[in-house]
Amino acid sequence: MTPWTLHLLRHGAPALPGRLMGRTDCGSTPEGIAACVARAAGLDIEHIVSSDLQRARHAAAAIADAGRIWPAIDPRWRELDFGAWDGLAPDEVESGAMLRFWEDPDANPPPGGERWSELVARVSAAIAALEPSPTLVVTHGGAIRAALHLLCGFGQHKLWAFDLPYAALVSLRVWPGEKPSAQISGLVT
């Protein structure tokens, strides 16, 4: 099996910083979009895929305008849905509930929100739909962590050890198959 390259780019800084933004659909700042364009410059890609949320979609479109392939939109690359907490600052959520969520987001999802396992299943389906050729996905921190869990086998708690600031780029060498696997070949923050 021939490996292929998958680049996962987190969207740029959002216009509403410091919030739990799963399904909240706000755009990125102009500086955030420019940071994504700069980060993607020079990548050898054949496909661009983006979450359908503005903060990812606008960055993908700007990358395409810089001479790339037009992005396909796939809502499976969205951030975890924070339910009733969506759009709130973390300190606006009861601290015990937030702590329980971070300790075990599958057993303690946000009220009306998504479980970690639901995000993982969604991202797994999105990965399976990708062409096995050099691809850039413009997405969100949670979706990147879910992809690392699926492709590299990192446990959910180990994933918080990765600092994924806005416009961070994780590059993977992916081996296709019934259960694809990957090796991290680059991390630029």
Automatic annotation (TrEMBL):
Pfam (any one): His_Phos_1
SUPFAM superfamilies noted in UniProt: Phosphoglycerate mutase-like (SSF53254)
EC number(s) on file: 3.1.3.73
One GO CC term on file: cytoplasm
GO molecular function annotations of the record: alpha-ribazole phosphatase activity
Keywords: Hydrolase
Name recorded for this polypeptide: Alpha-ribazole phosphatase
